[in-house]
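Incident log, structure service

09:12 report received: a user says their structure output differs between two submissions of the same chain.
09:20 pulled the input from the user's history:
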Amino acid sequence: MKKTLLLVEALLVLAGAAGCGNADDLASADASLTTGTAEDALTASNCTQLPTSSVIASGHDGNVPDNTRDDRLDTRWSNLGKGSWLDYDLGSNKTLSGVTIAWHSGNQRASNFVVSTSLDGLTYTPVYTGKSSGTTTSAETYAFAARTARRVRITVNGNTLNDWASIAEARPCGAASSGTGTTTPGVVWRGDFETGDRSQWSSTQMVSSDRLQVVPSPAREGRYAIKVTVKQGDNPISASGNRNELVRMTGEKAGDEFFYRWSTMFASDFPSAKTWQIFTQWHHSGCCGSPPMEFYVNGETLYLRANGSTVVWSAPLVRGQWQDFIFHVKWSPDAKVGFVELYHNGQLVLPKRYIATMYSGTTNYLKLGLYRNSTVAPVGIVYHDGFIQGRTLQDVRPATTLATAQ
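09:34 re-ran on a clean worker, output below:
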């Protein structure tokens, strides 16, 4: 499925829905969403999205069911009447564990709904009955016990204001995909470039494609890695500093706990500068300030810093050799709940430390590449490979011995 809820290349402006005017056209409080907020709104937490081959509905008012698969919050499917339904075909039997739904005007009313699954499109079994939060137009994930099905149906039984059924986006959720065509229990996502391109990632922030090149060598594992180049003046998003970065809308929220593994190599001529050069960061959904978690270089030292102020780990910068990281995080704005743990080059270098790992009222997303102070003049080159996100340490351990190529 080429498009997903994580598509973030386009600027989204929620300016009301297209199609016939009706009582369902509630004024949206989200009409002024910024790009960053829209990216977050389209992120489906705790859902590995499954592709659908088609969608049908019990009816529509001109806002057609395919609008729920177009990766846009400014379109929708709508139909008047309790019992209105959408029905998605997965193309073959798949393991389902939930659905994620972005409700039209979901911040103004709560919708009552039932999720049912079917193997043959004739007999349906209810697997989830509930109500949307009524507080957001962002995607909400509704989980149920894993089961095998070919079709999934969402039946809407009115909402707290009227009998309209109206959904902006929806996706079935299933077993975690590796991004390379295989499925691994516990693996949430891979960004290892084994597709030969950048398609595993949600978007890029780069001045030109030569700044984020998928290359066959040097590779830490598999066939490909990414070569990141930053030159002074590279400023693709007209913000502070210079950068070329990959973005993955991982959508970590308070209470999530994940392990992340990746490898980074700094080129032999990587600049030594007495200022920050960030190579991996988890940014918050808000617009401003330091990221809540960042790995960066300053001078001849690597650092891990939390909340823009607290350094929790450091090590000497080594050029021309792969550096392997496994980062374990419990995401929470509460320092008594959140924690970090870090393995570097196969060794536990930071035992579990409790600390606030995110800002209150936000979610996080991943950025990988190189982002540095604009005062750094020399060209900077860094390589990344093998990014994987999982739920346990075993999920992210490499299946084979990593290459020792320099």
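09:41 both user submissions now match this output. Likely a transient worker issue. Closing.
09:42 reviewer note: The radius of gyration is 22 Å. Residues 105 and 137 are 6 Å apart (CA to CA).
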